[in-house]
Structures are given as C-alpha cells and as structure tokens.
Amino acid sequence: MKIDAIIKIVESRRNELMHRADVVEVIDYGAGNPQENRTQEDMVLGKHIKVMLSVLAETGIKGERMYNLYNIITKLNPKTILELGTCCGFSSSYMSFFVPDSKIYTIEGSPNIATIAKENHRFFDLKNISVFEGRFDVVLPELLNKISPIDFAFIDGHHDKEATLKYFRQILPFMSQGGVMLFDDIAWSDGMKEAWREIIDSKQYVKFEDYIKMGAIWL
Ligand SMILES: C[S@@+](CC[C@H](N)C(=O)[O-])C[C@H]1O[C@@H](n2cnc3c(N)ncnc32)[C@H](O)[C@@H]1O
In the chain, where are the structural domains located? Predict the structure, then answer.
C-alpha cells in the first residue's frame, strides 16, 4: 500500500478518537513532563491519573517523525520489531502497514491504554502485532530472550535519562547485526539529551543519524 493511503487510514482513525469525550484511567510509569523531576520510585510505582482519550490519541509519532520511521524500516525490512511505548497503537500500526511481513512486539504499562491499542489494531485488521502489558523493566527480560534477534527497536516511552540508558544497554545484546535502534524524543529534556549523547559516545554502533527529535543507531 502507498504511504499516502496508509496515512489516510491511520490518521482518520486518530482523528475519530480525538473527537471522543471519553476519559481514560491511566497508570503512568514514565517521566511525566520535563519539569516534574519524578524519582525512580515514583516511576516504579506509577502515577494514577485520568486522561482525555483525545489527548492520548494525539500522542505519538506523526508527520516528519513518522516519515523518518518509514524511511528506516522500509529500507531495513526487519523481521522482528520491538517497541517500548505502545500508547494507542498508532506507531505500531504504521510499522505493521510499512512492513506487513514483520512480527511486532510492543510494550505498554497502562492496561487501559493497551486495550485501546488492541482495539485499534483490530480496527485496522493488523494481525502481526502483539501487545504486552506491564512496566518495561518487568516485561523486557523474558520478552528479549523469547524474540531475539531483534532487527529494529523503537524506544518511545519512559523519557528519563537513566531509564533510556538502561533500556539501550539491556536491548543491545539482543539486536541482530545490521539492526537499528531508534530513540524518540532525544531532545525532550536535558536528561534525554544527555542519554542520547552517552549513547553516541558509547561508539557501540556502525553509524548514527540525529534527526533532532529522534536519533537512530545502525549496529
Ligand atoms: C510517547 S507514548 C508512545 C507513543 C507511540 N509509540 C506512538 O508513537 O503512537 C509512551 C507510552 O509509553 C508508556 N510508558 C512510559 N513509561 C513506561 C514504562 N516504564 N513501562 C511501560 N510503559 C511505559 C506510556 O504509558 C505511554 O503510553
């Protein structure tokens, strides 16, 4: 399917959800906003909040960032994709449309958000996506062993410096040679800028690309 047709399908569903008045009970295991300075303990416990579905539906990659994702994965043609941060399932849906023969494993901490993602995957009739519910640090160890080698990893949740570096180091040994790790929101906070700098300084890659808001490394 052509990219314009895919965008039309995904964005019209997003638009529909953005016009609903539902409120969703969410457990947020992420870093909140850059000013919040949540502690590691706060993030392990999670914050119980109510969020408008319209706000959740708007979250996630679109526009230029979605094109970056498209360019990388259509060239790479990954068999196995890991995503940290499902949200409403729009990025996993895009990946599924872009590489329909891949198998996509995506993790979401908030059960009600994971339910919305699964509904969206069903709505689009996408059958190659598995949503795992739970905190990344809880779900990852078993999942990595089960699904490796991973050809493409998209890190798009828990935008905290230490957490991002931990996921980088944890996932790296399970990546295939020639695989790609894509990090979203690398300029979201000072901590995320530092995390991206440390990833680059690690030199554990063949090449990297800095897209300002996203960064990718080729292994
Ligand atoms: C930016 S959104 C993901 C957007 C999605 N990738 C897209 O582009 O459509 C990040 C998601 O990660 C989840 N999340 C954040 N920190 C998490 C953690 N430590 N464990 C599990 N889920 C987490 C949040 O609940 C949120 O839904």
Answer: 3-57, 59-218
Instruction: Determine which helix (DSSP H) or strand (DSSP E) holds 3, and give its type and residue range.
Output: helix 3-18
pLDDT in tens, 171-207: 999 999 999 999 999 999 999 999 999 999 999 999 9
Contact 84, 158 (CB under 8 A): yes
Say what the pTM is.
Answer: 0.98
Torsion (CA) 99, 105, 167, 54 in degrees, nearest 10: 90
**Which of 41, 50, 59, 143 is the best mutation target for the ligand 1 pocket, counting ligand atoms within 8 Å of the beta carbon and taking the most?**
59
Q: Whose C-alpha lies nearest to ligand 1, atom 5?
A: 60
Fold that domain 59-218 belongs to in CATH? Rossmann fold (3.40.50)
Q: In angstroms, what is the span from residue 128 Cα to ligand 1's centroid? A: 19
What letters, b where the CB count within 10 A reaches 16 and e where it falls short, cover 25-54?
A: ebebbbbbeeeeebeeeebeeeeeeebebb
pLDDT of residue 34: 85
DSSP letter (8 states) at residue 148: P
